[in-house]
Amino acid sequence: MATTAAACSPAGPVVIDPAAAPAATSVGTPSGTPSPAATPAPSPTGPGGVSVPSVAGTVATGLRSPWGLAFLPDGSALVSERDTARVVAVRPDSSLVPLGTVPDVAFGGEGGLLGLAVSPSVGTDRWLYAYHTAPDGNRVVRMALEGAQGGPVTGLGEPQQLLAGIPASPIHNGGRLAFGPDGMLYVTTGDASDTATSQQPDSLAGKILRLTPDGGVPEDNPVPGSPVWSSGHRNVQGLAWDDQGTLWASEFGASSWDELNVIVPGANYGWPQAEGAGGTAAGFTDPVVAWPTDQASPSGIAATQGTVFLASLRGQRLWAVPVGAGRAGEPQAFFTGELGRLRTVAVAPDGALWLVTSNTDGRAEPRVGDDRILRLTLAPSG
Cα separation of 3 and 126, whole Å? Predict the structure, then answer.
């Protein structure tokens, strides 16, 4: 919807009919003026009920502003700390082992050491990928994981820069990394508090990027020679593929609507001209679900068992959205106000969810043991 329609915000999330949105639009600025708010469609009949999470135990405590989370073949996980630039290994026995500090990280506001991803072939090539703020902007780097082959990781090699020049700011830095089913590296960026950049094809800000594992541009990207996969984003911090291969992304709104989007290559999601639904008349792609910003501020997301889970910061809850065939059902909220701010959720190798809190990031009152990682088990609804 146009941002001027914020006064009509409902009491909760709305599901939006994706049939009103184009399958894809060209990267760039569409002509015309965004339409008024679209009427929310009823929940689609395709997706069933959500998978219901429950806390099975605590994996780790005492982390400082944890942000990225990536799993290794041995069942351990790597966690980035935004405000210390440390990468910490969480062993299968829940012990925490600092592996090292990423150099040349610039701190402040929402900047620092953000997303992590491990190579799909990490068991052999040993690459860890990271997104971080530097003095000259945001970067994507990769580092070799040290330690005997087949044994536990013991340290980090020197960073190898893959992509630099991503605009940075104290706010809206994006920062999520994820390898897709196609073996390519997907990178989310924010508008870095300059809203016009989201609609500028030659800017890396306000985009989802797609790179080869060595930092090159895949030949089948929408625009030859450009890493841009989709544009018109304000601040995407969550990426996940469901079991049908659909790419979902969570996006922070300004003062009206947060979003869950289906990402189509070459599509334009409307920021800053559109926030929430109602941009299709101008050639933008609408989200499939929108939330009032005080109920969400979604960061990391995970997709499993026909459900997309969104870890919400300001909303302090875990949203669960049933999905199927690129459509969404009625969202349900869990743990509202019980755990504080939630930064990241990810599917562990055993099928459980790991949920990461964010109460030491300067925007909340830390609780005993914060920040922590919780293990959630899933059960069918009903």
Answer: 45
Instruction: Take residue 58 and report the two structure tokens written for it.
Output: 């605590």
Q: How many separate helices (H) and strands (E) can be counted in the chain?
A: 1, 27
**Could you read off the pLDDT of 341-356 as tens digits, one per residue?**
999 999 999 999 999 9
Nearest Cα residue to 195 out of 234, 168, 229: 234
Quick one: fold of 3-380?
Neuraminidase (2.120.10)
Which residues, 6 or more positions from 338, have their beta carbon under 8 angstroms from its beta carbon? none
Give the H or E element holding residue 123. helix 122-125
pLDDT band at 88 (very low <50, low <70, confident <90, very high): very high
The DSSP secondary-structure symbol of 125 reads H
List the chain domain ranges.
3-380
Contacts (Cβ under 8 Å, ≥6 apart) of 106: 112, 133, 134, 135, 168
**pLDDT tens digits for range 94-130:** 999 999 999 999 999 999 999 999 999 999 999 999 9
Q: Which of 231, 371, 243 is nearest to 311 (CA)?
A: 371
Contacts by residues 242-245 (CB-CB < 8 Å, ≥ 24 positions apart):
242/303, 242/306, 242/308, 242/323, 243/303, 243/304, 243/306, 244/324, 244/325, 245/181
DSSP H or E stretch at residue 331: none
Omega before residue 17 within 30° of 0, cis: no
Question: 318-324 and 307-312: which strand pairing?
Answer: antiparallel
Q: For residue 20, what are its two tokens?
A: 């009103």
Contact 311, 320 (CB under 8 A): no
Q: Are 24 and 267 in contact (CB under 8 A)?
A: yes
Residue 330 CA to its chain's centroid (Å): 21
Q: What CA–CA distance (Å, rounded) separates 175 from 102?
A: 15
